[in-house]
Amino acid sequence: MPQLTGGSGDDLGASDELIAFKDEGEQEEKRNVSSGTDLDDVKSSLVNESETNNSSSDSEADRRPKPDPDLESSRARHSQLFEEALRRRQDAGLFQPSPYVGYPFFMIPDLGNFCSPYLANGALTPSARTSNNVPVVQHPHMTHLHPLLSYSPEAFSPQRASPGFSPDTGLSRTPHAACYPVSPGGVAQITHPLGWLQGQSMYPLAGGFSPAALAMNASMSSLVSGSFSPRLVPTTQSSIPHPAIVPTGVKQEPGGSNQPGKSMVDGQQEKEDAKKPHIKKPLNAFMLYMREERPKVVAQCKVKESATINQILGQRWHSLTKEEQAKYYELARKERLLHSKLYPGWSARDNYGKKKKRKRTKSETQLEVPEEDLPPQLKRPRVPPEETPHTHSLLTQTAHTHARSHLTQPHSISHLTHTHLSQASPASSLDSPATPTTALASPAAPAATHTEHTHYSYGGHTSPYGEQLQPLSLTTKPHRTPHPLSRNTVTPGPSTPSSSCDTPTSSPLMASSRCSPPPPPLQPFLVPPLSSAHQSAASSHGALTQPFSLRRTNQL
DNA sequence: AAGCCTTTGAAGTCT
DNA sequence: AGACTTCAAAGGCTT
Fold first, then answer.
1. A245 touches strand C (CB under 7 A)
2. Which residue has the least CA–C1' distance to nucleotide C1?
3. What is the pLDDT of residues A320-372, one digit of tens each?
4. Are A407 and A464 in contact (CB under 8 A)?
5. Distance A223 CA to B11 C1' (A)
6. Using the CA of A294, which nucleotide's C1' is the nearest one?
7. Reduced to 3 states, what is the DSSP secondary structure of residue A279?
8. If exposure means fewest CB atoms within 10 Å of the residue's CB, which of A172, A454, A459, A470 is most exposed?
9. Where exactly are the structural domains of chain A?
10. Helix/strand/coil for A285
């Protein structure tokens, strides 16, 4: 397994990350606020950090500018003003703890160097408010924090108790100025420090600033000289870009979190909850890659439909070298670190149900069309138990992913490279409507397609197409092996150089070797029915919220 | 207008 | 422990 970052073999395990993060925080305690280091330096330092593999925090600290006394005094002044404003708000009953406050800085163009994808979601905690002595801490990557903003870590302390966090630890709750661009409304574009989103508005700020945020902004605006006027958009107004907070129109009720009236029915409450701004999940490597590459794909392929683009990107992702992917894994790792710093108490669970409509569960999807109810020709061929390998631990994630991928790919060849498919069944690729299922559905296909890039591993069972699946570790080289920079992800095999709209030509998307319109809908009979296991695996992403064949058929 | 589609990865819950 | 579920982005499409 290649060491992608050249050295430390940094494990991306969450726990490890947290440990590393704490270490960083400890290091950061010793640091002081930097003045406006050029953002590019931050980006480059970040990249360098990645490339040089986790250069020590000390060295990072060394690279940081020393605090400017003037800035320090200014910082203290601003901190005081900010706190006063907050207290006024609170005293007026306008302030309420909310997980969604604390990102007013996005509204301050002058603070262009201060930005964060995940500004702390909490308002001031009592302890935090009294923690002026808490060392100003910065994210190691945020060497450029605006002096006006880096003073007040307490201002961004999550309201929610953060089990693992103690103000005394010095862990920063300061918005780490991840510099997620702020978009609309004339607000300055702020570049993400991680550098993959230049020129993009990565996270739209949600409308709906908390009183704390408003107070903060008011306080800050009074301090920031110049002609700009901080744009505070009331909750009822249009969305304000924020990295990690989704738009909302929800009103903040005094005295606590948004508690709907008792008369409010659950459905309404759920809707309200869904509308709440919330801290979003940090983007994973692929998401980061998508963000970066999507515009290119759109430009190259003249395709705007995200589903199509995502398919292309998915294939391109697989064609990346491990080194290329490592870049994104590393960025994602940093993203998670930053996120964990900004929101120590945040959990992905917090966002459960934030989607407007929950995807159906396994049991729900299983209710769709029981296999036994399917016509014989649609039933999945059975494999004798003795021929079915036991589920292998190595298969789990891969199988899951592949089941998902295969089943969600319209033509189920998402992981088959052009070469492989050409070698496997050049005449039977799905390009040919006459033999649309030859490569994948015929019993002979597995052997032909069982290249190092091709495996059908549904937990060591059988693919939806009936072929027996072999444990990856025993038979074929996994199409994707765990990426060293990924916690529980797997990466593609040998790279296939990508070019413009270069997904495999055998791909449904690339049938014409160009970025072509989405493939024609599959004929329903082309895709074998799915076992419940397959369905569940695939349905986890909603791809099979209705049976694949049926879903595609609907488009006919 | 709301949700779907589509991708991979992370992290949560469930069994 | 492993399986399963949800969400993250995005924008055209469908209902």
1. no
2. A393
3. 998 999 999 999 999 899 999 888 889 888 888 876 654 444 444 444 444 44
4. yes
5. 41
6. C10
7. strand
8. A470
9. 1-250, 365-550
10. helix
Crossing angle of helices A39-51 and A322-342, rounded to 10°? 120
Q: pLDDT tens across A369-423, in order?
A: 444 454 544 444 433 333 333 323 233 333 333 333 333 333 333 333 332 333 3
DSSP A460-524: TSB-TTSPBP--TTTSS--SEEE-TT-SS-EEESS-----TT-S-TTSSTTTTSS--SPPPPPPG
CB-to-strand C under 7 Å, chain A 308-337: 310
Q: Which residues pair with A468 in a beta bridge?
A: A462
Q: What residue is closest to C9 (Cα–C1')?
A: A287
Q: How far apart are alpha carbons A318 and A495 in whole angstroms?
A: 7
Q: Is A199 (CB) below 7 Å from strand C?
A: no
Gap between the Cα atoms of A207 and A187, Å rounded: 14
Residue A20, CB, strand C, below 7 Å: no
Whether A160 and A123 have beta carbons less than 8 Å apart is answered as: no
* Distance from CA(A174) to C1'(C14), angstroms, rounded: 43
Burial of A93 (0-12, 13-18, 19+ CB in 10 A): exposed
> Which chain B positions have some atom within 7 A of a protein CB?
2-13
Q: Which amino acid is at A507?
A: S
Six token digits for residue A402: 């592949």
Q: Which residue is nearest to nucleotide B11 (CA to C1')?
A: A348
Q: Which nucleotides of C are covered by protein (CB under 7 A)?
A: 1-15
The answer to whether A96 touches A251, Cβ cutoff 8 Å, is: no
CA distances from A538 to A242, A310, A338 (A): 31, 16, 31
Residue from A379, A435, A384 nearest A411 by CA: A435
Q: Which two tokens stand for residue A158?
A: 């999550």
Per the rule left: phi > 0, alpha: psi between -120 and 50, beta: everything else, A255 is left
3-state secondary structure of A245: strand
* Ordered mean pLDDT values, 10 residues apiece, chain A (556 residues): 37 34 35 36 39 37 37 41 38 34 31 37 33 32 28 32 34 34 33 35 35 34 28 31 42 34 51 71 94 91 90 93 92 91 88 66 45 47 34 32 36 32 31 30 30 29 31 29 42 38 39 38 34 37 32 31
Q: At which residue do the structure tokens 């969450």 appear?
A: A14
C-beta separation of A539 from A518 below 8 A: no
